[in-house]
Here is the input.
Amino acid sequence: MKKRKRWGLALAAGLVVFGLTGCGHGSGSGEKRIVRIGHNQSQNHPTHIALTAFQEFINEKLGDKYQVEVYPGELLGSQAEMVQLTQTGAIDYCIASNSILETFSENWSIFNLPFLFSSAQAYHAAMDDPKVTDSIFEASKKAGFVAVTWLDAGTRNFYTMNKPINSPKDLKGLKIRVQQSPTNIEMMRLLGGSATPMGFGEVYTALQSGIIDGAENNELALTDNGHGDVCKYYSYDMHQMVPDIVIGNVAFMESLTREEQAIFEEGYQLINRVQREEWTKAVEAAKNRAQREQGVEFLYPDTAPFREAVISLHESILSANPDLQPIYDKIQDYNAQYTEEAEEERDGVETEKSRRVS
Here is the structure.
């Protein structure tokens, strides 16, 4: 893995010299401007499928000037490295975890808050609202990139090798991989576990070698990344709904003509739409495969103790950054609006739990 990452970084560095200076920029040179997008998922993942749709759309609409190329599976480095490459313009876009973006602007920390959203419906509605997202998406502009759309990364839950997690006390003494952000580290402390931040590409080896006892992520991590081969307990505590973010290099985006910007904007909306459609199907398939082929046991604990353990984190984040309060309040409006749907989701979990017990 490390060898591949070093190769990816060497390739990306070469793109700065050769790719950006050795091809046209879509304005009179007669050569196509290569538009490079990097991400850390497999080619079967909803994110890659959505980016491929974007690639085909832009190549069809603006193929005389631009050629989009998508690099999956950390070919251009880890997520953190790809964010840095997007900053500098070595690549033009990448998929970034919201947690990584928190290190560039504290504004992003709001989406990392545990139990921020009451239901998937409230989550989607809030993330689709420019009044919620615009100021945060633009927060890293001075750093050289902005967010162009969000991706559904489902619900984050704990999964472990040897010990099922049915309450926060079960996390005591366990080393759990978390995403690399201060909010996630503090969340893990409040829940009683030992936070072990690391890049996603390192998790499988860390599980195999016993460096960590478990991790927290969505169901696709079990199957697409093989974590279900090692971890046999997956606990639906539903502590986070954290989006993945498509970020773009500011200089490249500002180099587009107004007409080109409109077409790219249409492409960003296409990414969001396709990814969300594919996500629902992928989660169902991953869960079925994890149960049948990997022998993963799915657990459905009472989420209230988890929620109570971390609620103070909301207060500390908002007190440290009062500008986030109006956004937080708007999200709470959506939570209230979708109260019935939230209750239906919890009822569904209880029904599933009862069915498995019986």
